[in-house]
Amino acid sequence: MAFELPPAVYSAQLLESVIYDLEQYLEWHRQSSVKQKVGAKPAAEPSHSAETAQVIKIYLQGQVATVAALEALLGELKAVSLPEVHITLAALPNHAQREALVAWFRANITPHILITFVADRNLGGGVVVRTPNHVFDFTWKQQLLAGRSHIAEIVKRV
Amino acid sequence: MEVTIIVLVLSVMVVGLAALVVLQSRQLRQERHKQAAASPPPQRVAQTVIPEPTVAELQAKLTAVYEREINKSGETFAADLRGTSAKLSEQVTRLTTKVIEEELEAYQKTLEEVRQVATGAMNQIREAVEHQRIELRQGMEQELATERQHLADKFDAKMGDVIASYISESLGSGVDLGAQMQFILTSLESHKSEIRKDLLDGV
Description:
Radius of gyration of chain B: 61 Å
Number of strands of chain A: 4
Oligomer: heterodimer
Distance between the termini of chain B: 113 Å
Strand order of the largest sheet of chain A: 2-1-3-4
Radius of gyration of chain A: 22 Å
Largest sheet of chain B: none
Structural class of chain A: alpha+beta
Number of helices of chain A: 6
Order of helices and strands of chain A: HHHEHEEEHH
Largest interface: A-B, 41 and 36 residues
Order of helices and strands of chain B: HHHH
């Protein structure tokens, strides 16, 4: 992909939402053009999310927004296939925590990555990273279970 | 078997001798009757008249001599018979003793051989049982040690599970992601290359 998605658009659902907004806008624009030609009153302009606005802004890079540019953006977004990773935490992260995690993945793995956050309170702490082919378990529970042989040694020492 | 044959032969001999005595006695009587019958009747012409007392006396003497001879023969035979019987008895005793001794010796020899074989077999059985016992004991000790170790490992693992679950569940109600962020980022950082490889290889 030629441009980087903003940190706010970090998941596949958010990307779908951006695509939906763009489709809605372009559809409204087409219908409005037709209505203008026939002298009908066009419908109200559909609203779009802040994430969509950020994506358009980054894509255009200061250029004037045109229908052609938006259609090109839509086509690129629909065609792209980005790697996706699922992150499971003991609780859903807040905005800052989510931004930190997204930033880390986009800085250290690839700028074009989508992340899905899942909460599981049974983890206790830590994180589980699930990629298409592997599960990286960095939870406290896993570490406790992995080190359970040390518990017996510790108990014997006490 | 040999003794039985000897006894049988001697018995036959004794019976034969007895029969011989009876036969001789009969022959003597017959001779006396023949002589009495063959003696010519007294002739009147040259007849010698022997007085009755003399005849009786001669008769008595003859009878006495005859009986003495008979008794003498009987005594001789009895003496021979006693001697033969004694010898026979001695021989039988000797043979019997010898046979018994030989049989006893053979029996003792056989008994000794059987005893040696039995002792050897018993020693082999004892050694086999001892060997089996040692093997069984070693096997049981090893199995016991393995089982003990298995139980100890199982207990340790279970205890680890219990403690891990307890800690995990205790922490579950009070999650603070903010405090965990450093740990999470450090964990991600330490496995960065693996995650990148897995994600980018799949694209």
